[in-house]
Design brief:
single chain; mainly alpha; MetI-like fold; 15 helices; transport; MetI-like_sf; ABC transporter permease; dipeptide transmembrane transporter activity; transmembrane
Length: 320
């Protein structure tokens, strides 16, 4: 098991290194414009630009710039923002609570709904309840996130507020450490925005995986031995059927923690996704690079965690 974890960790570190190399090439070498001029401002003098270029190390050979860049990353130094002259990591960490709250809450909701719905649908394959769940799942998958968010905003904020029932706020984020009740009140509709689409997707995956598992020989053997249907379902069929679900959760959770741009924009959540959009709009190069690397880090960590959990649950994963 230790060898498996070490191998997966080294693979994750290699992936992160390749991403840092790609980010450096794209943003330091392929980006139009002078980073020193962007940092100093358009009204800076030639001497000021030269001083900034020397400070950023842009007057040195490319390989030296990359080594300086990697050395700074190893010390958690993502540079300074061109716009607000603040450390990029400080800016990202300030935005992170909103993104983490949105990602974990929405994933938790759609798993709590989708997995039981998928299992229920698979057990009643071909029946009216199965067709109804399948239809609802397809409908949820078909709605774009911005459409779901707009509808929720109109119904649960605009209409309710005009009717004299201001149950939900129009947006914004309240940290859970400040007021847990207000945090929950502000997060329910953003969670629902992501959960509608996620629930539909995961219901279909859970149903398909469960149907495939129920047709395996070992499940038929367990039934032939006279085991109860509940025991066959939850002890023999469910664990292997959840393998693709867990794998997909790792990918989706890592991506969500890297920033959910549309949902954060709709509900006014100052998270990492909205920070990335603002950085692109203002040409804030260090912040763009920082958000890309943070998103990549979360994806790698989430997949590493899923691999380890899969290996603990099923020793065949380690052998594979």
């Amino acid at each position: 098991m230790l060898r498996f974890i070490l191998r997966r960790t080294l693979f994750g570190l290699l992936t992160l290194w390749l991403i840092t190399l790609a980010v450096f090439v794209l943003f330091y070498m392929a980006t139009p414009g002078d980073p020193a001029l962007m940092f100093a401002g358009e009204f800076a003098t030639a001497d000021q630009i030269a001083m900034v270029r020397a400070r950023l190390g842009l007057d040195q050979p490319v390989h030296i710039q990359y080594l300086r860049y990697m050395w700074a990353l190893l010390h958690f130094d993502f540079g300074m923002s061109f716009v607000n002259q603040e450390e990029v990591l400080t800016t990202i960490l300030r935005r992170m609570p909103a993104t983490i709250s949105l990602a974990l809450g929405s994933v938790g909701i759609w798993l709590l709904v989708a997995i039981p719905a998928g299992i229920f649908s698979a057990r009643r394959s071909g029946q009216a309840s199965d067709r109804l769940i399948t239809m609802m799942a397809l409908a949820g998958m078909s709605f774009p996130t911005f459409v779901v968010g707009t509808l929720l905003f109109y119904v649960f904020f605009f209409l309710l507020t005009n009717a004299g029932f201001p149950v939900f706020p129009s947006g914004g984020f309240v940290p859970i450490t400040r007021d847990p009740g207000e945090w929950l009140r502000h997060m329910l509709l953003p969670w629902a925005t992501l959960a509608v689409v996620g629930t539909g997707t995961y219901t279909r995956i859970a149903r398909g995986s469960m149907l495939e598992t129920l047709n395996q020989d070992y499940v038929r053997t367990a039934r032939a031995k006279g085991l109860g249907e509940r025991r066959v379902m939850y002890k023999h069929a469910l664990p292997p059927a959840m393998t693709p679900v867990m794998t997909l959760v790792g990918l989706d959770l890592g991506g969500l923690l890297g920033g959910t741009i549309i949902t954060e924009r709709i509900w006014g959540l100052n998270g990492v996704g909205s920070l990335a959009v603002q950085a692109v709009e203002t040409g804030d190069l260090p912040v763009i690079m920082g958000t890309v690397l943070i998103a990549a880090l979360f994806v790698v960590l989430a997949n590493l965690l899923v691999d380890v959990l899969q290996a603990l649950r099923d020793p065949r994963v380690r052998l594979g």
